[in-house]
Structures are given as C-alpha cells and as structure tokens.
TrEMBL record:
GO terms for cellular component: endoplasmic reticulum; lipid droplet. Keywords: NADP, Oxidoreductase. Belongs to the short-chain dehydrogenases/reductases (SDR) family. InterPro entries: NAD(P)-bd_dom_sf (IPR036291), Sc_DH/Rdtase_CS (IPR020904), SDR_fam (IPR002347). SUPFAM superfamilies: NAD(P)-binding Rossmann-fold domains. This is NADPH-dependent 1-acyldihydroxyacetone phosphate reductase.
Length: 285
C-alpha cells in the first residue's frame, strides 16, 4: 500500500517542494504543507495535495490534524522540514530572533510530531524525519542560534528514537549540506551597526549567510531530494543521513580536533582579521 507522507515547509523552490515531488515520484501519497498555500501553487497544479500548517501555532497544527482525522488519513512518514535561519554574532542576536529560531526549528517540529505520533502508534509503525543541518554538529560562527536549534533537534531526535522504538516508529535525522533554496532570502535580518564591535567585518558576516547558496551547485535540489527519498523508503532508514553540497567537508570537520576547527573558522569567517584590527586599535589608543 502507498505510504502517506506529510512534509512541512513546502514553499516553492525550497527543499520541501523537491521532497514532495520525489516522494510522489516514488509512489507515495504526499501531503505538502506550508504556512502560506499560495507558495505551493506549483505543487497543487502537479496534483499534490496541499494543506496550510504553521508549525509555530497550536491552532494551525490542531486544525490540520483534525482535518486529517476527519478524512481518516493517517500519516506514515512525517518530514519536519520547515525551518528558519538567522545571521549575526551571538551577543548581537536579539532575544526575539533567538526565540523565533528555537520556536520554529525545535518547538515547531516537536509540536507537529507530538500531534501526529499518537496515530502512528495506532498504526503500529511510522517514520519521523527531522531536517537538521550539518551545522548542528559543526557550528559555524554568525548563525549561532540556528546551529543551537539544529543541535537541539538532533538531541530531540535521539531521545525520540529511543522512546518510540517500542512502537515501531523510526526517527531519521537528515543533515543537508549546501542545497539551493530560499533559505538565505528568508533569514531573520542582522546588520552590524557602526557602534558594533563587529562592524569592521560586517561584509564578511553578511556573506556568511550566502555560504550554503554559493556552494550549493552539486548535487541539484532534485538529485538531493531523490537521494533522501531513496534512503527514507528503505526498510531500515538510516538514523543519520548527511547529504548535499559540501557534505563531505562537514564529515571531515566532525573528525578534526575542535581547536583546529576553531582556528580554521577564525580565518575563514574574518575573526582573525577582527582580532588584528582590535589589537592595532589597542596599540594606537
Ligand atoms: N538549503 C540548505 O542549504 C540547507 C542546509 C542545511 C539545512 N537546511 C534545512 O532544510 C530545511 C528547509 O530549508 P530550505 O533550504 O528549503 O529553506 P527555505 O527555502 O527557506 O524553506 C523553508 C521552509 O520553511 C517554512 N517555514 C518557516 N517557518 C515556518 C513555520 N512557522 N511554519 C511552517 N513553515 C515554516 C518556510 O515557509 P515560508 O516560505 O512561508 O517562509 C519554507 O517553506 C530547513 O529546516 C533548513 O534549516 C537547509
């Protein structure tokens, strides 16, 4: 029997949209969701069922789950894909931004999982795929709360996997490398003000946001999504799947000593340059 897959964050030109198309191609019944149905026009036109879900809202999640129950639809695979990114140094991150990132990437994914797992338990099987990030394991500077949220999502997944194992519900963490999408356009904004101690490297900080988009040429989003679906539909899906542009680099970085990684990132992201500027200023003052 065809498996029913519900995916969050399926706006046009993002990972969710490509996953919806790939799961459909693999003969699954797909329910593509996003907080704004207009952004799923293309999926709807290609015959994929769409449904509005804002994962940050109890009302929205409850309404969607009730609708599915009324139609006797049970979800076999839940893909918690929706997410947002922020930019900027940690100490300059507003509490509002920090809360938004955690509320979406961690609590939002948890909200929908919590709402759908009871029906998976009834069905005696299920798969939850949490879309994390390589930065959940190797945190880059200037997007600290995004990395914190993905790291938390990884921990959440580990606990969930153990607790749901008795019910034959599996949990897979997907850590995409660089994949072309709208992620950099949808970020929570940050600009170093002239008074900011980070002002001298403000352009490097702004560029950091584009990192996943500059290096996202291979594989394309479609090939990436096909790869994910191939693994997700295995009898025993992997606990962790790292794939996408530059995934190999992050696999290497996870093996290096943390002091070496810090040293590399200081050069790569302008912190060494900032240190030199600060030390020159100290000498001249
Ligand atoms: N692209 C990469 O290189 C990359 C790398 C590592 C991990 N990821 C992860 O992959 C996932 C998909 O990201 P993407 O690259 O496809 O970015 P994207 O194009 O910005 O897509 C993100 C999706 O999440 C949705 N979303 C945000 N807040 C939501 C909420 N409260 N409720 C429901 N949907 C919400 C967005 O909706 P709107 O369109 O309405 O904003 C959009 O549909 C994210 O979890 C991201 O962290 C991406």
């Amino acid at each position: 029997m065809a498996r029913t897959v519900l995916i969050t964050g399926c706006s046009q030109d993002g990972i969710g949209e490509s996953l919806a198309i790939s799961f459909q191609r693999a003969n699954c019944e797909v329910i593509a969701t996003a907080r704004d149905a207009c952004k799923m026009k293309r999926l709807a036109e290609s015959g994929i069922r769409t449904l509005e879900i804002d994962i940050s809202s109890d009302d929205s999640v409850n309404a969607a789950v009730q609708k599915l129950a009324e139609e006797n639809i049970s979800i076999d695979i839940l893909v918690n894909n929706a997410g947002i990114i922020n930019n900027g140094p940690l100490v300059e991150t507003s509490l509002d931004t920090a809360q938004k990132v955690i509320n979406t990437n961690v609590i939002g994914s948890f909200r929908l999982t919590k709402a759908l797992v009871p029906s998976m338990i009834k069905s005696k099987e299920g798969l939850v795929i949490n879309v994390s990030s390589v930065v959940g394991e190797v945190p880059l500077p200037f997007g600290g709360f995004y990395a914190i949220s993905k790291s938390a999502l990884n921990t959440l997944s580990t606990v969930l996997r153990t607790e749901l194992e008795p019910f034959n519900i599996k949990v897979m963490v997907l850590e995409p490398g660089a994949v072309k999408s709208n992620i950099a356009n949808n970020h929570l904004p940050y600009t170093a003000s002239e008074a900011s101690p980070y002002h001298p490297i403000k352009d490097l900080i702004a560029n950091r946001l584009q990192l996943s988009q500059i290096h996202s040429t291979a594989p394309g989003r479609e090939a990436f999504a096909d790869d994910v679906v191939r693994y997700a539909l295995k009898r025993s899906p992997p606990k962790l799947l790292i794939t996408g542009g530059k995934a190999w680099l992050f696999k290497i970085l996870t093996k290096l000593p943390s002091s070496l990684v810090q040293w590399l990132f200081s050069y790569r992201f302008g912190l060494k340059k900032l240190k030199n500027i600060v030390s020159t200023q100290r000498k001249t003052n």
